[in-house]
Specification:
By secondary structure, this protein is α+β, with helices and mostly antiparallel strands. It is built from 7 helices and 6 strands. A hairpin with a 2-residue loop joins strand 5 and strand 6. InterPro entries: PP2C, PP2C_BS, PPM-type-like_dom_sf, PPM-type_phosphatase-like_dom.
């Protein structure tokens, strides 16, 4: 079936992480793909009171996702905007700076090495907050996951914030190459415009490109 299998791989690799200010969990499942192409970072103590969470979608191969999970956090931490506290600019600048390195000879060599060695771990990302019922059957769990998967990202982030139960003021900065939302002090807002073929800006962009 090409890049897809006739049956999904449902084995999960999960982890629980504890930091000074928060606790979280991550879970990875390969699904229908012939191999796990995604990777993630769950850095609960990234830098002092700052935590970093990231998901990298392989889109046809695991090597760039795995490389990003190993190197992007340090790129962010070394960014001047990050050091000055401008986290939104830091994420944007770090994405662009990191992307530019992917075409360098040294990085291309490392990516080829990662591709040949194969994926060492079943990275990916998923999250849950609160305790789960040990007696909950798989069908119910899958139904809940599907419901959350169809929810706007803003609602998912808001649920996570409510589950954290933290009374301390917090700020979440997010950045994405696609539609995304950010949450600040419990209120969500769209941080990008969804890509829709029938939107005016999308039609103009396609017309300009011929």
């Amino acid at each position: 079936m090409g890049v897809y299998m006739s049956k999904p791989v449902k084995d999960k690799e999960s982890s629980d992480l504890n930091g000074k200010l928060l606790k979280c969990g991550a879970s990875s499942m390969q699904g229908w793909r012939v191999s796990q192409e995604d990777a993630h970072n769950c850095c609960v103590e990234f830098d002092g009171d700052i935590s970093l969470f990231a998901v990298y979608d392989g889109h046809g191969g695991h090597e760039v996702a795995e490389y990003a999970s190993s190197h992007l956090p340090n790129v962010i931490k070394q960014n001047e905007a990050y050091k000055s506290g401008d986290y939104q600019k830091a994420l944007i600048d770090s994405f662009l700076d990191f992307d530019a390195t992917l075409k360098t000879e040294a990085v291309m060599t490392e990516l080829q090495k990662i591709a040949k060695e194969g994926k060492k771990t079943k990275d990916g990302a998923g999250g849950d907050c609160g305790e789960t019922d040990d007696e909950e059957d798989e069908e119910t769990a899958v139904a809940k996951l599907r419901e959350e998967a169809n929810m706007p990202l803003a609602e998912v982030i808001a649920i996570a914030a409510r589950c954290s139960g933290s009374s301390k003021d917090s700020e979440v900065s997010s950045s994405s190459s696609g539609p995304s939302s950010s949450l600040t002090n419990g209120s969500s807002e769209e941080s990008s415009t969804s890509s829709k073929p029938d939107s005016e800006n999308q039609r103009s962009s396609k017309t300009d490109r011929g």
